[in-house]
Write a structure and sequence with these properties.
It is a single chain. By secondary structure, this protein is mostly beta strands. Helix content is 0%, strand content 48%. The protein contains no helices and eleven strands. The strands form two sheets. Strands 2, 4, 5, 6, 9, 10 and 11 form a seven-stranded mixed sheet that branches.
Length: 127
């Protein structure tokens, strides 16, 4: 089992940047594929980005492609979401999620595929 804790949220102006972190407990972080999702008020939780357990496999939602970058440091048990060129429509609670992955290059893009979730961190982008 793994516990996930997000940090790095806050208020940022449109066009700015923010880096979110997702710290995982335990010593088996490298077994988990990781994902980032977000949920705006009144909307469904939606996929943002995913990364395989060893890092080379990544995927992005079309709405963030070219602006956001997902990465991980298995030695530090941490996943990251670098967000650049932020827009007001990026305002949401951002969640990281994890699932044990058999294959090192696999990543997952639907919330139903994830087993573990963090508590979320609010990102607000002002215009």
């Amino acid at each position: 089992q793994v516990q996930l804790v997000e940090s790095g949220g806050g208020l940022v102006q449109a066009g700015g940047s923010r880096r979110l972190s997702c710290a995982a407990s335990g010593r088996t972080f490298s077994r988990y594929a990781m994902g980032w999702f977000r949920q705006a008020p009144g909307k469904e939780r939606e996929f943002v980005a995913a990364i395989s357990r060893s890092g080379p496999g990544t995927a992005y939602a079309d709405s963030v492609k070219g602006r956001f970058t997902v990465s991980r440091d298995n030695a530090e048990n941490t996943a990251y979401l670098q967000m650049n060129s932020l827009k007001p429509e990026d305002t949401a609670v951002y969640y990281c999620a994890g699932v044990i992955s058999v294959f090192s290059s696999s990543f997952f893009v639907t919330k139903q595929e994830y087993t573990y979730w963090g508590q979320g961190t609010q990102v607000t982008v002002s215009s």
